[in-house]
Amino acid sequence: MKAVNKVRLIYLPAIILPIFVMIVSILALGFGYVRINNTDISADGFERFVNPLKTMNNSTKEIYRELEEKILTEPSALEDKGYLEDVNRRLSEKDSYLLLRKNQKIVYRGSKDSSQALEEKLPAYGNDESDQDRGFFVSKPGNYLVKQQDFEYQDGGKGSVFIMTDLGAVLPHYRNIIIQVCFAVVGVLILTSTFLSWFMYREFVGPIRELKAGAERIKDGNLDNDVVIRSGGEEIRELCDSFNEMRAELKDSIDARMVYEKQNRDLISNISHDLKTPITAIKGYVEGIMDGVADTPEKMDRYIKTIYNKANDMDVLINELSLYSKIDSNIIPYNFERININAYFKDCVDEIGADLEQKGMMFSYRNYCSENAMVTADPEQLKRVINNIINNACKYNNKAKGKVSITLTEFDRKIQVEIKDNGMGISKEDLPHIFRRTYRADMSRNSAGGSGLGLSICKKIIEEHGGEIWAESKLRAGTTIFFTLNKVLEKPKENKNE
Cα(328)–Cα(457) distance, rounded to whole angstroms? Predict the structure, then answer.
């Protein structure tokens, strides 16, 4: 269950429970008080409870009926002091006492607190109250509920028996009820607030502190440890999971940025080294010309050609670095179009064959694609990939008879291009890294030159085409570069006869 729903379920009884306890306490204590006073709980029991006069009147009802019966059947019993003491004892348990009057003179007092002023206010013999069972009220001094029964003594005297109920005794009982109810409500509120505090700490405060500690660790650079929450509701756990995912992604991002920055530093170092080499050569040849070392037209011509070639090498390095920066930032627009792979490679092969022939290298071309095989590609960028791979094949070929071959193979959904050379090859340890932009810098420096970005540029271009690029190589035996292009799949023609 979600923590929000738990809080709602807790706050609902937190409001209802004190009210419920108050009502139950009032009923339990009130009816307990009624039972203590031997008052029956009938249909009008609740009315008697909420009406103190009725409650006190009803508490002496049985004794009143008993006296009434004695007057009718055995009036002499009212002259028996033992009987009067017994009745008075039972009345005292109900905050009442007995008065007996004969010929306007009090002959029995059940309470020492009974005063002459009070007794003078008692009704005379033959009181015409319509319902003596209900009693009547006498005040000043005190507040008393009075029940009266008149009778005649055996000697002809006029007698009256009174049940005097002190209403002042009612207040302590009800005050105790109110105090107990208040204590019960306060106790329930304390227990509820304690439980709510514990619940809020367990469900929210504790987990939030754990998340804060995790945020402090991230601020200090510690991205290795997840935040573990052992309590809390579903929302808190979801928040914790999101926090841990954020931490993991942040760590991966920082690690990738550190790798990227290291590669950038290596690239800058490599480019600086590669630029320094032709610049040093250019400076040397220019100084030779200025010092008159090139004192013949042949030497002068050789120096100038060397300077020109070195300047071209620098231009190639700068162009490759600029191109890689644009490709890496995804700011080079690709102009994809449908091209016939056979026609496209026929033009490329003619140009490549002429260039390799000038360099004294052998070239072969094999095509196993259907005549109408079509691919989706950017012709200019695809040509850059082919040229970069061919240039690498020439650059790192130390054989007397260098060989380069291109093979096209058609599959169901792709066209595979294979460019193979017989150069120095690549070791197994270095082969997985050749498409990194710092690959050449990781190898021993050689005189081949170049930025080392060629294959990295090829990888990015092929991936933008939705293809794959990989290499196979054997040290001192040659290297083969493979890449694939997506075919244009023709939709099956609908049968018009159907």
Answer: 9
